[in-house]
Write a structure and sequence with these properties.
6 copies of one chain form a homohexamer. In chain A, 32% of the residues lie in helices and 29% in strands. The first copy, chain A, has 238 residues and is of the alpha+beta class. Chain A has a 5-stranded mixed sheet. A 4-stranded antiparallel sheet of chain A has the order 7-6-8-9.
Chain lengths: 238, 238, 238, 238, 238, 238
Amino acid sequence: MRPSGRAADALRTVILEPGAARHAEGSCRIRMGLTEVLCTASVEGRVPGFLRGKGEGWVTAEYGMLPRATHKRGEREAARGRQSGRTQEIQRLIGRSLRAVVDRKAMGEMTITLDCDVLTADGGTRCAAITGAWVALHLAFEHCISKRVLARNPITGQVAAVSCGLWDNEPVLDLDYAEDSAAQADANFVLTGAGGIVEVQATAEGTPFSEAQLLGLMALAKKGTAELFAAQREAIGA
Amino acid sequence: MRPSGRAADALRTVILEPGAARHAEGSCRIRMGLTEVLCTASVEGRVPGFLRGKGEGWVTAEYGMLPRATHKRGEREAARGRQSGRTQEIQRLIGRSLRAVVDRKAMGEMTITLDCDVLTADGGTRCAAITGAWVALHLAFEHCISKRVLARNPITGQVAAVSCGLWDNEPVLDLDYAEDSAAQADANFVLTGAGGIVEVQATAEGTPFSEAQLLGLMALAKKGTAELFAAQREAIGA
Amino acid sequence: MRPSGRAADALRTVILEPGAARHAEGSCRIRMGLTEVLCTASVEGRVPGFLRGKGEGWVTAEYGMLPRATHKRGEREAARGRQSGRTQEIQRLIGRSLRAVVDRKAMGEMTITLDCDVLTADGGTRCAAITGAWVALHLAFEHCISKRVLARNPITGQVAAVSCGLWDNEPVLDLDYAEDSAAQADANFVLTGAGGIVEVQATAEGTPFSEAQLLGLMALAKKGTAELFAAQREAIGA
Amino acid sequence: MRPSGRAADALRTVILEPGAARHAEGSCRIRMGLTEVLCTASVEGRVPGFLRGKGEGWVTAEYGMLPRATHKRGEREAARGRQSGRTQEIQRLIGRSLRAVVDRKAMGEMTITLDCDVLTADGGTRCAAITGAWVALHLAFEHCISKRVLARNPITGQVAAVSCGLWDNEPVLDLDYAEDSAAQADANFVLTGAGGIVEVQATAEGTPFSEAQLLGLMALAKKGTAELFAAQREAIGA
Amino acid sequence: MRPSGRAADALRTVILEPGAARHAEGSCRIRMGLTEVLCTASVEGRVPGFLRGKGEGWVTAEYGMLPRATHKRGEREAARGRQSGRTQEIQRLIGRSLRAVVDRKAMGEMTITLDCDVLTADGGTRCAAITGAWVALHLAFEHCISKRVLARNPITGQVAAVSCGLWDNEPVLDLDYAEDSAAQADANFVLTGAGGIVEVQATAEGTPFSEAQLLGLMALAKKGTAELFAAQREAIGA
Amino acid sequence: MRPSGRAADALRTVILEPGAARHAEGSCRIRMGLTEVLCTASVEGRVPGFLRGKGEGWVTAEYGMLPRATHKRGEREAARGRQSGRTQEIQRLIGRSLRAVVDRKAMGEMTITLDCDVLTADGGTRCAAITGAWVALHLAFEHCISKRVLARNPITGQVAAVSCGLWDNEPVLDLDYAEDSAAQADANFVLTGAGGIVEVQATAEGTPFSEAQLLGLMALAKKGTAELFAAQREAIGA
């Protein structure tokens, strides 16, 4: 039995709250169990230097964690004067994942920045951030359509993410913090609504794992993201 | 008539939500109108170097704002690599204000850090942070008592803060963002439950103001903080 | 009796030395007792980005302290790699105070930077900086007139600052370092020659103070700044 | 046909040069085609704070690239004042990969730092770094044995890494820079000599890929690392 | 004729003002023509880590320039967040030069930090800093003797510095800013009272110079420092 | 007898390997005994702001050392977040030295950056960097000629550098690390092929030295650089 007592293939309760941030063009608060991430999408009418004049848009992400989102207070990155390697790794992942389902030529020269800030951390924050950010991004594009800045939504499909891990040699879905700390392996899957793989990051914490186990983790991830895609569609009213 | 349409001496709706952060020893989410600040109090069993061996505790604060708490996205301070002068000024003010109502000798050698993170900004965030942080601090001390780390609560009284300003030459209470941007003067008052002044910061934005006007602002602040003290007492169940 | 032995309403000896810096467009060395601050005004023919094209000028300030201006050597901020929160708070205050008496539209698109560097610190350095910087700024504008860059001086009035404090529950004027360290409350007043208030910053160091005490401090500040205004007028030959 | 003209399952020429750095306790220069990375292992008789007193050792890595290792000169990270997110991500990966095959309790309280510096970059630098660092680490432990600091080598197995990608929808092994820039997907596999998976990082650059394609990439990775394991054994004289 | 109109072997007017800084254990304000540097020596009863427990002292220096010490305002290094290469180069030179005439074993475990802050710059600031810092250091050691911290002065001799340059192919002594900007070569000599060379830094600005010219510059430096040594002795009352 | 056993006037074995870096427009690996520095010259078609529009080029240098180039691992400057004073001093010296033999007007508006990275350090790294960088720079200009970007090579002569020191009061040429650590004085000479002096930096480590000794060091430097000039000519095929 896994620590949370959930079935091996059970997600935690997922709640998506679209429009949770008053000022942002698009936003979504996502809860997966106790984990809670506020995702906002901010639209700006210009692109970074490397894209200027190319007629394409840009989608990027920043990630942060409130100092006391965690069991023990973490140092505030703004006070320390730099973002950790972990933070940078996560925000690069979020940006890549969302760009995989956006037609950037259809955006024109605009940038959308997704801020994913963890209010409460209980495992799986980067996956929750991707799933919630997709909703925020979708809503921001809809906002642009309503303002007649865009004629159609440049999103080409859904993207969502979930973590899986090996517990007592068996694959389990959607690790919480206690499970994540003790798992033999930890894998994050970013998958599309059409069944494609955008990113796999699988890491053995101690003993290396086998290809069969990797496939077992992926099977759970497909089941988990199917539920997340449904929740996303409901959140955007599709 | 002031922009918000409120009476000159009317606070915005104040909601204090104690225990809003799952992991912190004490916490309080405060809303004043649209402004929303999450205040957490984290207890650590040691003091900064300058206090070591003196048998006293320390209370300090950090302040942050989510990038899209504001109408226009602000740069993330962690990404820029340093906290702005404004941020540092505010977190110093919050720390000073709370230390004014704590018997630091009664704490023993422990540090409590108050993290005040603005989730939505609509004016008055530093004042809301002080008012909410007092509740979080009180609860953290109660937590220490329940854990038998402290025998009694070292808080010596209540402290709360409110902003006032001059609108059309008349004093008005509790400025929202639109009012703050257009006010002739802007003053923050940090007052105690016993009627004392902890801090006054009054600034003319354009034309200097008079002593009579300063007194008018202070009268409103007294009225406003009286309501905030009541809300604090209710929040801690006193 | 206060530690310095001065009467409660007595300023320290004030000496303003206009033109103390050879290269600056305007400058003034100010001494208030042992406290000594060198204020220079540097003129530059452009404005920060947020003002470009608006036809207005900008007045800003930077503040520093020589490492051994103090009793005990302080760390050099350039070596540490960042300015302290205190430094930033002070330089923001100096800039705001001077902008309160400048018609920025009359400046045209130019920036004047006031560098206030403390050569010897004995309390009241930020107030001395404001009082001296006003002289430096006035002289820099006169320099611009002499160079036919400006037709008239954009300064609209005088501004000066003084600190007051509570000693043995009584208000006293112009605290030196020893007094400042032991005062029950500490207040900085930035006032104009026309009797207006530009900024009040009053802080209880221990016990909160009363409104009556705040008024007592302000009465002393008015008396003190009256003497400072006279010294400023003498310094600029008015 | 892939750009390099190699067969889909062909590695580039691999050359491992053990002992390439004169001063380091262990070192290895690795070339995979034009890519050239110098890996050094430095032994220090203490551990980071979080491990002190636990009787375990630590293995960590740093990664860098000479500014002109690349076709176009890159900014020097030391001059810019911070390591990029990419650099931090890579050095975290190298450290994790090597720790997966080290019995840290058998090390005692010592730290080994692997510096992997890219002298020439032509794709696959992080994988080359892992493969070469394993040799450097092995030699450093042997050095400790020769100095009677350790009784036996704490390495529990081999680890090596290789990149694979999708070219024209077909999996190809060991991408060079030109191939990497144009591949549809890019995957790094860190595998052990015993056939286990330590880490998989697979990313779709444009179109998402399928599970079958992921398995195709993994099959190539197994073939490629088998050759790398042989080269490692030869390099250490096993 | 050189720009300043001085004879080729003429120093500018030198004024040493010992005790110029109220709080420092030793201090000296030095003026060489318009150049003005405030040198303070601060005593601290401990040494940097690399000397701990060795029974030796340390002498180090920091150098700074007020932003408007120069004709055109320079950026404040504290605001920019780092010291320039030039600043670091100069403060390393000052420290080395003074350590050359100190018996560090005779100091015991104490550190003296020489802060050399340029109030007005008109060429030759690093040389003036060395010459003035020697006086400050001497006085600080005398202070330690008066406090019975030291039994005798650990200074083993005098050290002073002067710049020379080539003007119209002829060596000239003690360049001011205008001369320095236009000289063909620029050399700083740090010499001891006993006639030894501590440091020579000679740089061709355009055309390389000859050994004969280097000797001509050195001859001037000997003459110039002889006068500086006399001024130093007078300043310390020797 | 000096520690290395070499004759007082003997250079270490010098090996220049032009074209050692695959991607750079010009490059040279230089070995002087064990010291090994990789010098690359990177051409960029624009100049820094202070030269824009003046029709001149710029030559600048950056210097680095691999963390384990040394006997004991040094901290990685990119990880620490800033370059040391020593690094900045050296890269400024390299840039100045090369600019002394370049007709910058003949370059047009282009920048060449010389990256000098120490792969193995055994004394004399800054001198080796200058000598090797000259070759890299020459080749980069030849590259520009071959690409018809330049019509002729803007280099006006050769420049090379060597260190000398006092050992047992006698001048010796080309110090290795062990000699450098124990020498009484240490001098770096940057000389031109035409016999001119570009830079002299001579420092007494303990006892000051005499003018006669300085001349003795210089005589060795002339002999040593004559050999280096021959090696440079051979390297560029002149």
